[in-house]
Specification:
This protein has three helices and nine strands. It has 137 residues and is of the alpha+beta class.
Amino acid sequence: MRRTLEQPVRARLVTPGYPQLPIRPTLRYSATEPFAVRIDFPAHVSDDQRGVTWTFARSLLEEGLDGAAGIGDVRIVPRGRSRTVVEFHAPHGMAAIRFGTASLRRFLQRSYAVVEPGREDLGQELDHCLMSLLDGV
């Protein structure tokens, strides 16, 4: 069984007053963090030229493909049938990335082959964290 998933995708950085910039982020999912989706952005689109990774709930991606979702740092908004905009909000500003909806759906479906929805389990990792918090009590 596959434990991780990486899928490079085509997207566009949308900024007001400037032409859209084509970018190639990578979508990632891992069985070790079954509730999380990661998006790695290339260095040339980050302020520090080192790249950036955003992490958010897989359920948010699922919800956002069918209707506006998110109220925090990450918001997902469908734009018609073929495009989805993911907004990343930070203290220094906001970035909007336009994805092809089909690419996001394909990634989500492929993530279900890694960990089925409803079968997310933190197992030993959760036990270890609880033991650390309770300090052996």
